[in-house]
Design a protein that fits this description.
Number of strands: 27
Largest sheet: 9 strands, mixed
Helix content: 40-55%
Shape: rod-shaped
Distance between the termini: 51 Å
């Protein structure tokens, strides 16, 4: 990531999230389920005390009063009749009556016969009608829907729906669950029923029931769910119709995927597997009527009628022994499975559905790509904290949109992927920016720690924006330092000895420069090129350059004294250096080629500094400064040396010898030298050779005391030559340098 740009890192994250979203991995699907569960808990379906559906519950109290399950079907016949007489519109049993009632007279007589006690029951007992027949007879008196279990194994007979499904499109055998077997009610009970539907409930992988299957495939035949069949019978409707994607013209789902189930005028949205999302009421909002008081007549006809008249009554059990308990998004404990069928039927009757449309995934992916793309572009430009605010605002907007879609439109739009995309992009891009800045800091350290003082390197690393890459114009001070007579020194020693000497000399010189905030540009053999006021601002760069030059002269003299006789390093008899200083505009920055860059500077100021260093040999002074720099050192010990036209430059330059710092001008010797030299230059430029010579002879002790006797000798020789060959009438006193 250190070498990866933040934008590219964000794009990669966005692409990966899109791929994961397209694959819809199970762990993230579970997160989606949990998000929808939270929505249901926060905004469950509004309870309706007078709703069209009630549940008669075979609860623990009923088991305790009437005995263990299964009860005699005569009790269920009475339950059915009483509900019918109380005005129940339809009764739906979430029970599969697949085996004969063991309490029927014939079966009891058979058991007594096997034990030899058949006479004890009487001759007519075995001829009494079976409880299954009595129960079937009650089913004919009231519209009743019975249930069957679907099974993957090849068991049972064919399911024969009371009203066969019609289909618009292709049979969705690849998406809707298909079963080979079924556990059906006894034929006499099934034939007495007004309808028959599947009671199978399939929870999600985490064990929670969120959807109810409206349709399944049994041996190539579409069969309805108990809830769907109960509503069909209640409304006396014809065959339900399954609408599939290729039959509806919708193309976002795979061909043949379930889209909706039409029942009369109601269109029930389903997913590809034919399942309807259930919008549950709050836990315990759907009233449960205990079965025992109805069967034992403890509940009056009037009370019962108030509870069930005109309604669909689902009968099932919440008792533990019935093993029909399920978990739902809104319940803290398991509830009776019959309540799921009841909730589904109530939702069909109300026509108010939750829907996860087939375009939902596309919209979620589009949101992730668009918002993520915006964050990818914006985040690196605005920084981590503003970026965090933008990311949080986007995440909040996505969640708010999803929530409003649920509460206002009943759409299930998953905010997971857009939120994950935005969060990951923020984290990854912020990390990429961090690593990029760390890499930039490491680069800055590696690029400058050998050329700048540690403090300056720390400042640049802490504030990389202060480093303008690619070149910028700055007012700068430039130094060129060179060892006098280095060619002669090189001839005297071996290359190894010369290298050791240079290391011993350049190391303290470089340390002085770094201590005075200089940037070391390069070493050119024995020469040093350094500059000030870049890459960091240095308002005092003129003085820092002057102080560094004076310190270098002083340390060179100390090295001449201390290095003689050192066994490890060969040191010449006496090392002298010349330093050229100049100030002015320079272009500084990373320069070179695409393959190799160097942080350096160019400009006339640099060229003049190099020429001034060369002039130190001719004028016999250790440090020569240009006029632009000298103007900024008004309290330093400076004397004007000459007006010179250096090689390669037409404009003349007034040059100055830097002899000391701010303390030196207060000395008597410097004051005498400064006065004498200034008067000499005035006489010299007026071609008053006698006066100039007189001043040079009188001031020689001062030149010698200040260490510049060669400057005195140079002017005496120049005056002699001008006496012999007088200058032209328009002579301006400017000396033309003939060599660098």
């Amino acid at each position: 990531m250190g070498r990866l740009g933040p934008e590219m890192a964000g794009v990669i994250v966005l692409v990966l999230v899109a791929l994961v979203q397209f694959a819809d991995f199970a762990p993230l699907e579970r997160i989606r389920w949990q998000v929808f569960d939270i929505y249901q808990q926060a905004a469950p379906r509004a309870p309706d005390a007078d709703g069209p559906v009630v549940v008669v519950d075979i609860d623990e109290a009923s088991i305790a009063e009437l005995g263990q399950w299964p009860w005699p079907r005569t009790d269920l016949a009475k339950l059915t009749r009483r509900l019918g007489e109380a005005g129940a519109h339809v009764i739906a049993y979430d029970i599969v009556f697949s085996e004969p009632d063991r309490t029927s007279p014939a079966l009891i007589a058979e058991r007594y016969a096997r034990s030899g006690d058949e006479a004890a029951l009487g001759a007519e007992f075995a001829s009494l009608p079976s409880h299954d027949a009595l129960f079937a007879e009650s089913l004919r008196e009231v519209p009743v829907v019975t249930g069957f279990f679907l099974d993957a194994g090849e068991i049972g007979r064919e399911v024969e729906p009371a009203a066969s499904f019609t289909i618009s499109g292709t049979l969705p055998s690849e998406s809707v669950r298909e079963y080979a077997g079924a556990l059906l009610p006894l034929p006499e009970i099934e034939h007495a029923s007004a309808g028959i539907g599947s009671v199978s409930i399939d929870p999600d992988a985490d064990g929670i029931v969120r959807r109810a299957s409206m349709v399944a495939i049994h041996r190539g035949t579409l069969v309805p769910a108990l809830s769907l069949e109960a509503v069909r019978v209640a409304q006396d409707l014809g065959s339900p119709n399954l609408l599939t994607s290729d039959g509806s013209g919708q193309t976002l789902s795979a061909p043949g995927a379930a889209v909706a189930v039409r029942l009369g005028e109601t269109e029930i949205p389903v997913n590809d597997a034919g399942e309807m999302w259930i919008h549950f009421q709050p836990a315990n909002a759907l009233g449960l009527i205990s079965a025992a008081p109805i069967i034992t007549d403890a509940m009056s006809d009037t009370e019962l009628a108030e509870l069930v008249a005109g309604k669909i009554v689902f009968i099932g059990g919440s008792a533990q022994g019935l093993q029909d308990l399920v978990a739902t998004p809104v319940s803290d404990v398991q509830v009776a499975g019959v309540t799921v069928h009841a909730a589904a039927a109530e939702q069909i009757l109300s026509g108010d559905f939750l829907d996860r449309p087939d375009w939902a995934l596309g919209l979620e992916m589009l949101l992730a790509l668009v918002l993520g793309g915006i964050l990818v572009v914006v985040l690196p430009r605005i920084g981590a904290l503003p970026g965090a605010l933008v990311a949080v605002a986007m995440i909040a907007a996505v969640i708010a949109t999803s929530w409003l879609a649920f509460t206002q439109l009943r759409y299930l739009l998953d905010p997971t992927y857009p939120v994950v995309a935005l969060a990951l992009i923020y984290v990854v891009q912020t990390a990429a920016v961090f690593f990029r800045e760390e890499r930039q800091r490491r680069y800055i350290h590696s690029a400058f720690d050998r050329f700048l003082s540690p403090e300056m390197v720390r400042q640049i690393a802490a504030s990389p924006d202060s480093l303008e890459l690619g070149g910028e114009e700055r007012d700068m001070s430039v130094m060129m330092c060179d060892i006098r007579g280095f060619s002669r020194i090189s001839e005297q020693y071996t290359p190894r000895q010369v290298i050791d000497f240079l290391i011993a000399f350049l190391s303290p010189m470089s340390e002085i420069l770094l201590d005075h905030k200089a940037t070391l540009d390069k070493y050119i053999g024995d020469a040093i090129l350094a500059f000030w006021n870049a890459p960091l601002d240095d308002p005092d760069h003129h003085r820092n350059a002057a102080r560094a030059a004076l310190q270098m002269i002083k340390v060179t003299e100390e090295l001449n004294a201390s290095m003689k006789g050192q066994g490890d390093v060969v040191w010449p008899e006496e090392v002298k250096i010349g330093i050229g200083l100049n100030s002015g505009l320079c272009c500084v920055g990373n320069m070179g080629s695409r393959q190799r860059l160097s942080y350096t500077l160019i400009g006339d100021t640099v060229n003049v500094a190099s020429r001034l260093e060369g002039l130190t040999k001719q004028y016999g002074v250790p440090i020569i400064a240009g006029s632009a720099l000298a103007e900024r050192l008004d309290d330093f010990a400076l004397i004007e040396v000459d007006r010179v036209r250096v090689v390669g430059r037409d404009a003349p330059e007034t040059i100055f010898a830097l002899l000391g710092d701010e303390v030196m001008p207060g000395s008597e010797i410097f004051a005498r030298l400064s006065e004498c030299h200034a008067r000499m230059l005035d006489a010299y430029r007026q071609q008053d050779w006698d006066e100039a010579n007189k001043l040079l002879k009188a001031g020689l002790p001062f030149y010698e005391s200040m260490g510049v006797p060669d400057l005195n000798a140079l002017y005496r020789e120049r005056i002699r030559q001008l006496r012999d060959a007088p200058p032209a009438q328009d002579w301006d006193g400017v000396f033309q340098a003939l060599r660098k």
